[in-house]
Amino acid sequence: MLIDTLKPHHVLAIVAHPDDIEYYCGGTIKKWTQSGVTVAFVVVTSGDKGSQDIHADIDHLIRVREQEQRDSGRVLGVEDITFLRYPDSELSFVDHKVLRGAFVRHIRRTKPDVIFTHDPFVRFKRQHADHRVVGRLALDAAFPIATVAQCYREQIVDEGLSPWQPGDALLFGTDAPTYISDISATLAVKQQALLTHQSQQSAFDGGMAERLRWRAQTIGSPHGLSAAEEFLHVQLGVSLPNKEQS
Asked: Which fold has domain 9-235?
């Protein structure tokens, strides 16, 4: 089990819904932004199905959920937030080539060392269908597509981007964790960030802050930590002696 071995400079989180980041990796993101790491978010949907009120004004709900994500980003130290505005809970049916291309574009734009996204390989835990789609396409984008010049070549020719290979991915929501991040010092900020998503209170049994504390303690305890987040670590790049990406 790896514990806090990654030391990135640039990080990109690609997620399906507003509040996914805060719940799964908000403590690690805050820990890194506090140390000067640049972090960007790509949020594929705007959570337009995130209401049990059958008469809800969906346009209003979208505006609320996007603003909650922006507010949360500020708590975590992140200003670079992109909403792709795909329909919530329908990502299995959208054009995956186009969606993957959007992920490639933001990888090439932000040049991350580490990518956060959903683990699409989960077998023994329940998983939202959108999470499977986003995780699979994000991994496909991260290797090899974003580094191949002839893939989405218009991004290079017309948009001035260049190929990029991230070094590592941390997959959350996993049933096979191999990487632990100590968030003992940032758990309170993680809770504060999730609490900005007030429209989603009913989705968190036991209360938002309480559920995060219980989850973080449960993950951390076997490793002697008071609070932690867990991920499946995937090596994407190859480290060569005396060679760095420019």
From this structure: Rossmann fold (3.40.50)
Please classify residue 117 by burial: count the beta carbons closer than 10 Å to its beta carbon, then call 0-12 exposed, 13-18 middle and 19+ buried.
buried
Under DSSP, the state recorded for 80 is E
pTM above 0.90, yes or no: yes
Please name which of 173, 128, 136, 140 lies closest in space to residue 17, comparing C-alpha atoms: 128
Question: H helices of the chain, where?
Answer: 20-34, 58-76, 96-110, 129-142, 153-157, 187-195, 208-220
Question: pLDDT of 24-61, one tens digit each?
Answer: 999 999 999 999 999 999 999 999 999 999 999 999 99
pLDDT digits (tens, 9 = 90+) for 175-211: 999 999 999 999 999 999 999 999 998 888 889 999 9
Predicted confidence at residue 245, as pLDDT, reads: 45
| b/e sequence 1-15, b meaning 16+ C-beta within 10 Å | eeeeebebebbbbbb
What does R_g of the chain's alpha carbons equal in angstroms? 17
Domain residues of the chain, as ranges?
9-235
Tell me how far apart the alpha carbons of residues 46 and 17 are, in angstroms, rounded to a whole number: 6
Q: How far is residue 98's CA from residue 83's CA, in Å, rounded to a whole number?
A: 15
Q: Give the distance from CA 118 to its chain's centroid.
A: 7
Is the predicted pLDDT of residue 242 greater than 80, yes or no? no
Does residue 7 have a pLDDT over 90?
yes
Alpha-carbon gap, residue 130 to 127, rounded angstroms: 8
